[in-house]
Amino acid sequence: MFRAMNATKILEGMVLGVVLLLPVSGWSETNDEDLPRLTVSAEGAINVPPDKAVLSFAVETVGEKLSDVQQGNQERVAKVLEECRRFNIPSEFIQTTSLNVIPEYPPPPRRQADGTLENNVPRIIGYRVVHQVNVEVRNLEIVGKVVDRVLHVGANKFSGIAWGLQNEEPTKLEVLKQASAKAQAKAEALAQALNLKLVRMINVSEGGISPSPPEGRYRMAMAMDSGGDASVSAGEISIRGSVLLVYEISQK
Q1: What average pLDDT does the structure give for the chain?
Q2: Dist. CA 243–CA 170, nearest whole Å
Q3: Using one digit for the tens of pLDDT, what is the confidence trace for 169-204?
Q4: 168: left (phi over 0), alpha (psi -120 to 50) or beta
Q5: CA distance 69 to 104
Q6: Fold of the 52-108+123-164 domain
Q7: pTM score, two decimals?
Q8: Is residue 156 within 8 Å of 79, Cβ to Cβ?
Q9: d(Cα 163, Cα 214) in Å, to the nearest integer?
Q10: Which of 24, 49, 153, 218 suits a disulfide with 79, CB 3.0-4.6 Å?
Q11: Residue 137 pLDDT > 80, yes or no?
């Protein structure tokens, strides 16, 4: 019996010790999720002139024999790359983005007079090879000339120009500062209008930051048929970003 009483006391002591070791927060009746809050968001945007252009070209060749089509495509791509080097564009700024070999098939079977379809076995009648190349140009004064010459020596498809910045980080940071200031001003204005007090900031989250060409701020006019260089105007690009702020609030 004595041993049983000792065991009971030891067990009670262990339970009391565990209870005393529990963190105080575990016994709290409230947490941040229960607090009244105000959530605001704002966007920042800075328009800046680009200092680089990425040109997207493709060399497409077709023919019946795959080896001939591939060789012809390689020869034309080699001329395109050589022309880019004539403009002192470094090799690391010239990138193959895709190389596709596509079988060519005859047109779909025709429907005969009795309504049935011709029973033709699909057969390959030729091949199409498409070699896509991106070229980054950092001297914007020669963009039009590069477009003109590359199309002249071998490229037969031009997908367009993507304007950008060589170093976007400083502009992105300024955009975030701008968005944060706007969001904070919005929170203060709402609190004042609703007779609320901003107790503390609970959470901050950054939205996406992305460059985009503002509508109407850039244009590209091709003058290929007149024998001149492509007329290119870079205009400006817009770096945009957003910030979301969450405040704990209370009545004044």
Answers
A1: 82
A2: 17
A3: 999 999 999 999 999 999 999 999 999 999 999 999
A4: alpha
A5: 12
A6: Alpha-Beta Plaits (3.30.70)
A7: 0.69
A8: no
A9: 11
A10: 153
A11: yes
Domains 29-49+168-251 and 52-108+123-164 share a fold: no
238 contacts: CB under 8 Å, gap ≥ 6: 45, 46, 47, 211, 212, 213, 214, 217
Which CATH number is 29-49+168-251 given? Answer: 3.30.110.170
**Cβ proximity of 139 and 211 under 8 Å:** no
- Is the separation of the CB atoms in 48 and 240 below 8 Å? no
**Contact status, residue 56 vs residue 143, Cβ threshold 8 Å:** no
For residue 199, give the amino acid letter: V
- The residue type found at 182 is K
Say how far apart CA 213 and CA 219 lie, in whole Å: 10
Q: In this structure, what is the dihedral angle of CA atoms 203, 211, 156, 85, given to the nearest 10 degrees?
A: -110
Q: CB under 8 Å to 53, separation ≥6 — which residues?
A: 136, 137, 140, 143, 161, 162, 163, 164, 232, 234
Domain ranges of the chain: 29-49+168-251, 52-108+123-164
Angle at the Cα of 200 from the Cα atoms of 199 and 205, rounded to 5 degrees: 140
Q: Is residue 55 a contact partner of residue 242, using CB atoms and an 8 Å limit?
A: no
pLDDT class for 221, splitting at 50, 70, 90? very low
